[in-house]
Amino acid sequence: MRPRDYNDVRYVGHYFRQGVLVVMDLTEMTDDEGRQLVDFAAGLICGRGGDMQRLGPKVFLLIPSVPAGPGTTTGVVKRLRPRDYNEVLHVGHYFREGVPVVMDLTEMTDEEARQLVDFSAGLICARGGDMERLGSKVFLLVPAGLARPSAAALQQEKTAPEPA
């Protein structure tokens, strides 16, 4: 999700409480507001359990400790930072096991990174699921049967009553 200001914090909390994996992209926020959201997320994690990982300078992954129910995303995510193409089998292993994978290719050459993205596209095509770019050379692979809030879902929810 890409919050526009601190008022969007309620959506972060809503999804996290539901056990949904949240990617919090703060690139369009001021540094002060971004820090406020990171502090809020730290409080969520302290209060409900889970983990927060930095994916980029202003992009964070919030992982709830309690997995979501069927049809939503799991609270377990594997973050992989392959150094060369030989490590591609690790991506496939976790994905086949039904675990969402954050694939960080920032330490690879552009050519090798393209190979891993192509491999991942084939994996998604063969097994179902979705792949989303989270940042420069950082991708989220979500296996079939697991869902992640889309921009359209967020827009629909903003018109719905505020979550409790």
Structure description:
The protein is α+β, with helices and mostly antiparallel strands. The chain has five helices and seven strands, in the order αβαβββαβαββα. The strands form two sheets. The chain has a four-stranded mixed sheet, covered by helices on one side. Helix 3 links the parallel strand 4 (78-80) and strand 5 (101-104). Helix 3 runs parallel beside helix 4 (110-127). The chain is globular.
Characterize this entry briefly.
By secondary structure, the chain is α+β, with helices and mostly antiparallel strands.
Please mark out the parts with pLDDT under 50 across 5 or more consecutive residues, or reply none: 149-164
Roughly what is the average pLDDT, rounded to an integer? 77
Strand count: 7
Describe the global form: globular
Helix content: 25-40%
Alpha-beta classification? alpha+beta
Number of helices: 5
Structural descriptors:
164 residues, alpha+beta, 3-stranded antiparallel sheet, 7 strands, globular
Q: Topology of this protein?
A:
Layout: H1 9-17, E1 22-25, H2 31-48, E2 50-56, E3 59-64, E4 78-80, H3 88-96, E5 101-104, H4 110-127, E6 129-135, E7 138-143, H5 151-159
Parallel strand pairs: 4-5
Antiparallel strand pairs: 1-3, 2-3, 5-7, 6-7
Helix pairs in contact: 1-2, 3-4
